[in-house]
Specification:
Pfam families: MFS_1. The protein is mainly alpha-helical. The protein has 14 helices and no strands. Helices cover 80% and strands 0% of the residues.
C-alpha cells in the first residue's frame, strides 16, 4: 500500500507545488522527505538489541528450576542442529541467497508480476499529465490532482490483505482476477478523447478502477514472496544462514518494482508518441493479462 501510494502521490504533489511554488519547490519537498527518512532510520531499534536487553536480567527461582529441563532440550537440539547445513559465509551469502531464490519459479513469477505492475502504473506518470493538458487544457495543479483517482483505492488495500489472511487458498485467484480485470479497463482508455464532462468522468472512473486492481494485487504478491522463503527454509533448514532471507527477498521485490518504475515512464511516453493514446492501453494491458496465467500456474 505505502509503495503504490508514494509512487502515485509524487506526481500529485509535484504538479501542485510546481504551479504554485515554482521550479524548485518539488525538489525542496523531495529533500525534506529524505531528511525525515534519515531521521526515522536513526530512530529505529534493532530487534537483536531488544532481545539482548530482555535477556540481560538476573535469573529468577523459576529460571533456576527450569535449568535442568532446558539443558535436556539443548542436548536434543544439538543432535538436530548437527544435521543442519552450515550457513554460507558472509561474503557469499547474498550471492547464494539470490541464486537459491531465483531458482524458484514462484519467486520469478512474483518478481515478474511486480515488475509488470510497476511498469503499468508508472507509465501514467509521463503520459497522463500531458494527455489531460492537451485534451482538457488542465494546468499543473489539475494534472497532479488527477492522480488522486489512482491513489484513493489504495485505502482498501488492508481489506484485500484481510481476505488473504482469512482465505489463504484464494490468494492466486484474487491476483489472477485483478490482472484479468485490468485488461478491459486499460483498453477502455481509448474512449477518452474529447473535452467533455462525460469523458472527464470516464477518465476518473477508469483510473479509480485500475487503481483498485493495483491495490488488490500487492497483498498477494507480498504474501507469496514471504511464503516462498518460509517454504524453502522449512525444507532446507539453515540454507539462508542464521538471519534467514525474508528481508533479502523483499529487497528483490523492491528491485523489481524500481526496475518497472524506470521502464514505465519511458515505455508509456514512447508508445503514446509513436502509436497514440489508444495503443498505449493495449500495450499495458497485454502483459497484465498474460501474467495472470503465470499466477494461476505458479502461485500457491
Amino acid at each position: 500500500m505505502a509503495t503504490i501510494v508514494g509512487t502515485t502521490a509524487g506526481p500529485l504533489l509535484g504538479g501542485v507545488l510546481y504551479e504554485h511554488g515554482g521550479y524548485y519547490a518539488p525538489f525542496g519537498l523531495a529533500f525534506g522527505l529524505l531528511v525525515l527518512d534519515f531521521i526515522f532510520r536513526l530512530m529505529m531499534v534493532d530487534s537483536r538489541v531488544i532481545v539482548e536487553h530482555s535477556n540481560s536480567g538476573h535469573p529468577t527461582t523459576s529460571d533456576e528450576e527450569s535449568w535442568t529441563d532446558k539443558s535436556i532440550l539443548d542436548k536434543k537440539q544439538t543432535s538436530v542442529e548437527s544435521r543442519v547445513p552450515e550457513p554460507l559465509h558472509d561474503n557469499s551469502r547474498s550471492i547464494g541467497s539470490t541464486l537459491i531464490l531465483l531458482r524458484s519459479p514462484r519467486m520469478l513469477t512474483a518478481l515478474l508480476v511486480y515488475l509488470i505492475i510497476s511498469t503499468s502504473m508508472t507509465s501514467f506518470d509521463s503520459v497522463l499529465p500531458i494527455f489531460v493538458h492537451n485534451t482538457f487544457a488542465w494546468a499543473q495543479t489539475a494534472q497532479g490532482l488527477i492522480f488522486i483517482c489512482l491513489m484513493v483505492p489504495q485505502v482498501m488495500s488492508p481489506l484485500y490483505g484481510y481476505t488473504i489472511d482469512r482465505w489463504p487458498r484464494l490468494r492466486r485467484y484474487q491476483a489472477a482476477l485483478a490482472l484479468l480485470g485490468a485488461v478491459p479497463i486499460l483498453v477502455c482508455f481509448r474512449y477518452v478523447t474529447q473535452n467533455t464532462l462525460e469523458h472527464k468522468v470516464l477518465l476518473c472512473a477508469l483510473l479509480a478502477l485500475i487503481g483498485t486492481c493495483f491495490a488488490i494485487l500487492e497483498p498477494p504478491i507480498m504474501v507469496e514472496i514471504s511464503s516462498i522463503v518460509e517454504q524453502i527454509q522449512s525444507k532446507h533448514p539453515g540454507i539462508f544462514g542464521k538471519g534467514g532471507a525474508t528481508a533479502f527477498a523483499y529487497g528483490l521485490s523492491n528491485c523489481a518494482f524500481a526496475a518497472g518504475a524506470m521502464v514505465g515512464p519511458f515505455l508509456g511516453g514512447w508508445v503514446r508518441d509513436t502509436y497514440g493514446w489508444a495503443t498505449m492501453g493495449w500495450v499495458l494491458a497485454l502483459p497484465l493479462g498474460a501474467s495472470s496465467l503465470l499466477v494461476l500456474g505458479f502461485f500457491r
